[in-house]
Design brief:
This is Glutamate dehydrogenase. Helices cover 49% and strands 15% of the residues. By secondary structure, it is an alpha/beta fold. It binds NADP nicotinamide-adenine-dinucleotide phosphate.
C-alpha cells in the first residue's frame, strides 16, 4: 500500500484496520485508497481525530451473514451464503445494492459498503451506506430457480429492512427480475406495500423512470463534465466500454446520444471490437432479453465486429475509457496502454475497477480520472429520487427525473473540483471525491455523538 503522505497516525490506523479484518483484500484496498487522501483534512480538523471518526467509519454499524437454502428445478437442494453490511447511517437509511455473483464474500461486500458511504454522501441526498448480496450464481438458472433463491434470501433479510432502516437495490446479477421477486416476498411476509423498501422496481409498481439508465447515464454525464472543464466534449470521440450489463449498456446509450462512437463492450468470456460503433438495439436484445453473451453479438452483427478472447478490452485505442464491469479490471499495465494510445479521460462505471497502480499511472499522465464514488453515483442518486417519489406517492416523468440526475452529476463534479482545489490538488477527482464525501459524513457523525 502506498504511503499516507507521511502521516504516521493514519498509517498506524490503517495497519490496525488490516489486522482487525484479516483476509479482506478488497476491503483493505478500498480503505487504503480513502485513508491516503484524508491526512490534510485530519490536520485541519483535530476534532475528527479526537472523536475517533476514522476508527468508527471503518467499522460497520452492523454485519449480517445468513444461510440461504433453495431447491433447483431438478429437486436438488443448494445452500448459499447471504450478506448485508449496514455500514453507516449518519446521513440516512442504509442504501446500497445487492450483488449475486459466485465471487461474493464478506470482504467484497465490505469494500462495496465502505465506498457506498462516501458515494452516497457526495450525492447530497439523505442516504447512508450499505451493501449486500450472495455467492449465488444466477447465470444459467431458470426464472423459477432465481425466484426461489430470491424468496429464500428475502425470508431472512426482510427483518433487517425498512424504508427508514435499510433500502437495498440491484448490482451485479441483480436487476429488475430479481428486485421483483425480492419485493414480492417482502410484501408477502410483512403484509405491507412498503414501496420505499427496495429501489430499482418496475415503473408500473413504484419504480422511478430513469433508474435503469441512471448509473450508465450518470457516468457519461460525469465524463462530459470532466471534458467540459478541459474545454472538450464527447462529440466525435472514440469510447471503449467494458462490461455489457446494466451500467455498460446505458453508458453506451448516453455516449452515443452525446455524439461519441463506442467501439467495445465485454463480458467475462471476452470482448467485442466494433469499429462502426456498437449496435445498441442488437446488444440490448441479446443481453437484456435473451440473457446471451457478447460472443453472440459479434456473430450476429457480422461485418467489422470482432470477438476477441486474448489480451483485454483496454488494448483497443480510444479517447475515453469507461470500465463498467467489476473491481480491479483495469491494471497499471492497462493504464499504461491506454495512455500510450492517447486516452484523455477515464471514468469508473464499476466500483473500484482501476487498481491503485492504474489510478497512479493515469493521474501522472494527466488523464482526467473520475473515481467510481463520484462517476457512478447517478444510480444511487436516482434510487434516492425513487424513495422520494414513493414517500410522496408520486411518479415523475422521464425528462424531469433525467434533469434531476444531470443536476446531481454536475453538482458532484463541481464538489469534487472545488474540494480538490481547497486542499491544493486541483484536477484530482480522487482527492475531491474522498474528502467531500468524508466531510459530510464526518460532520453528521460528530453532531450525533459517540454511537
Ligand atoms: P450486471 O448488469 O450484472 O453486469 C455486470 C457486467 O460485468 C457483465 O457484463 C459481466 O459479465 C461483467 N463482469 C462481472 N464480473 C466480472 C468478472 N469477474 N470479470 C469480467 N467481467 C465481469 O452488473 P451492473 O449492475 O452493470 O454492475 C457493473 C458494475 O457497476 C459493478 O462494479 C457494480 O458494483 C457497479 N455499479 C452498479 C450500479 C447499478 O446501479 N447497477 C451502480 C453503481 C455501480 P458476465 O455476464 O460474463 O459475468
Amino acid at each position: 500500500m502506498s504511503t499516507f503522505q507521511g502521516d504516521e497516525r493514519i498509517e498506524a490506523l490503517h495497519a490496525q484496520i488490516l489486522e482487525r479484518n484479516p483476509g479482506e483484500r478488497e476491503f483493505h484496498q478500498a480503505v487504503g485508497e480513502v485513508l491516503e487522501t484524508l491526512a490534510p483534512v485530519l490536520r485541519q480538523r483535530p476534532e475528527f481525530v479526537e472523536a475517533r471518526l476514522i476508527e468508527r467509519i471503518c467499522e460497520p454499524e452492523r454485519q449480517i451473514i445468513f444461510r440461504v437454502p433453495w431447491t433447483d428445478d431438478a429437486g436438488d437442494i443448494h445452500v448459499n451464503r447471504g450478506f448485508r453490511v449496514e455500514f453507516n447511517s449518519a446521513l440516512g437509511p442504509y442504501k446500497g445494492g445487492l450483488r449475486f455473483h459466485p465471487t461474493v464474500n464478506l470482504g467484497i461486500v465490505k469494500f462495496l459498503g465502505f465506498e457506498q458511504i462516501f458515494k452516497n454522501a457526495l450525492t447530497g441526498l439523505s442516504i447512508g451506506g450499505g451493501k449486500g448480496g450472495s455467492d449465488f450464481d444466477p447465470k444459467g438458472r431458470s426464472d423459477a430457480e432465481v425466484m426461489r433463491f430470491c424468496q429464500s434470501f428475502m425470508t431472512e433479510l426482510y427483518r433487517h429492512l425498512g424504508e427508514h432502516t435499510d433500502v437495498p437495490a440491484g448490482d451485479i446479477g441483480v436487476g429488475g427480475r430479481e428486485i421483483g421477486y425480492l419485493f414480492g416476498q417482502y410484501r408477502r411476509i410483512t403484509n405491507r406495500y412498503e414501496a420505499g423498501v427496495l429501489t430499482g422496481k418496475g415503473t408500473a409498481w413504484g419504480g422511478s423512470q430513469v433508474r435503469t439508465e441512471a448509473t450508465g447515464y450518470g457516468v457519461v454525464l460525469f465524463t462530459a463534465e470532466m471534458l467540459r472543464a478541459r474545454g472538450r466534449s464527447l462529440e466525435g470521440l472514440r469510447v471503449a466500454v467494458s462490461g455489457s450489463g446494466n451500467v455498460a449498456l446505458y453508458a453506451i446509450e448516453k455516449a452515443q446520444q452525446l455524439g461519441a462512437t463506442v467501439v467495445t463492450c465485454s463480458d467475462s468470456g471476452g470482448y467485442v471490437v466494433d469499429e462502426k460503433g456498437i449496435d445498441l438495439d442488437l446488444l440490448k436484445q441479446i443481453k437484456e432479453i435473451e440473457r446471451g453473451r457478447v460472443a453472440d453479438y459479434a456473430e450476429r452483427r457480422g461485418g467489422d465486429a470482432r470477438y476477441v478472447t486474448t489480451g483485454g478490452v483496454w488494448d483497443v485505442p480510444c479517447d475515453v475509457a469507461l470500465p463498467c464491469a467489476t473491481q480491479n479490471e483495469l491494471t497499471g499495465e492497462d493504464a499504461a496502454t491506454l495512455v500510450r494510445n492517447g486516452v484523455i479521460a477515464v471514468a469508473e462505471g464499476a466500483n473500484m475497477p482501476t487498481t491503485p497502480e492504474g489510478v497512479r499511472v493515469l493521474q501522472e499522465a494527466g488523464v482526467a480520472f473520475g473515481p467510481g464514488k463520484a462517476a457512478n453515483a447517478g444510480g444511487v442518486a436516482t434510487s434516492a429520487l425513487e424513495m422520494q417519489q414513493n414517500a410522496a406517492r408520486e411518479s415523475w416523468s422521464f425528462s424531469r427525473t433525467e434533469t434531476r440526475l444531470a443536476e446531481v452529476m454536475r453538482d458532484i463534479h463541481d464538489a469534487c473540483v472545488q474540494t480538490a482545489e481547497r486542499y491544493g490538488r486541483p484536477g484530482d477527482y480522487v482527492v475531491g471525491a474522498n474528502i467531500a464525501g468524508f466531510e459530510r459524513v464526518a460532520e453528521a457523525m460528530l453532531a450525533q455523538g459517540v454511537i
